[in-house]
Amino acid sequence: MFDLTGRVAVVTGAGQNVGEGIARLLAQRGAAVAVNDLFAERAEGVAEGIAQEGGKALSAPFDVTDPEAVGTGMAHVAEQLGPVDILVNNAGVPPGMGVTPFREMDPGEWSKYVDLNLYGVLHCTRAVIEGMCERNWGRIVTVSSGAGQTGLNLGISLYGAGKGAAISFMRHFAMEVAGQGVTANTVALGLIDNHRDPTVTAAMARQVPVGRTGQAADIAPSVLFLVSEEASWITGQILGVNGGNLML
Q1: Where in the sequence numbering do the catalytic residues fall?
Q2: Which of 19, 112, 174, 185 could bond 13 through an S-S bridge, CB–CB 3.0 to 4.6 Å?
Q3: Into how many domains does the chain fold?
Q4: Is residue 147 part of a domain?
């Protein structure tokens, strides 16, 4: 099950953490993976690691908020690996970059949450969708957040707005391409352990019903399922991967 042999996947923001875990698992299941990151050295490090494990990977550094860079980068991926079958929109602004109530936030700070969390998804999706529809097969998964589904009194309203917008886009977009063999789904994450401070991790874990924060290994299998042939009848859905933190 979940064999991706012969498929070409692009994972954005895959130079570390959750994105890296997704890229590695897709490669282990047979996909040729383009590892995208804003920072070339991170993308190269993950791609090299996948190659050392016997997988096929390409470093694909580009800024997902820049439509021209996305177009050039995706064309390079297709030239080196083949047409893109799978897109995982993982790149995004983490909530920890700005925990500030809306009333206290400078309007000049608004755009970064929308540019990366929404427009990054739009640019990458637009770059690959025509080819997927022409071939009658494609999988698009956007990694979002429970903050885009419910209100939280944490000072992350702009983060939630960007993530929520991406969720809504995926729902509507899924309906547009469902008849062309392309599925579009969202994985909404809960509290992920990206902190090196054990006291921060422990405090976060106390908020999660299962008693711990999420790891990359918890997220990657859900994405693998959604991009597989076995998930061909699932589209326009939101899969919550959150340790029971949000039940909808």
Answers
A1: 159
A2: 19
A3: 1
A4: yes
Closest among 182, 146, 181 to 166, alpha carbons compared: 146
Q: Which residue range is the domain that position 175 belongs to? A: 8-190+216-236
CATH assignment of the domain containing 178: 3.40.50.720
**Strands ordered across the beta sheet of 138-145:** 56-61, 32-37, 8-11, 86-89, 138-145, 182-189, 238-241
| pLDDT tens-digit readout, 153-167 | 778 888 899 999 999
How far apart are alpha carbons 75 and 72 in whole angstroms? 5
Whether 100 maps to a domain, the answer reads yes
Tell me if 169 is assigned to some domain: yes
Cα angle at 130 between 9 and 171, to 5 degrees? Answer: 80
φ, ψ of residue 104 to 5 degrees: the values are -100, -5
3-state DSSP assignment of residue 57 = strand
Model confidence pLDDT, tens digit, residues 34-73: 999 999 999 999 999 999 999 999 999 999 999 999 999 9
User: Looking at the domain assignment, is residue 87 inside a domain?
Assistant: yes
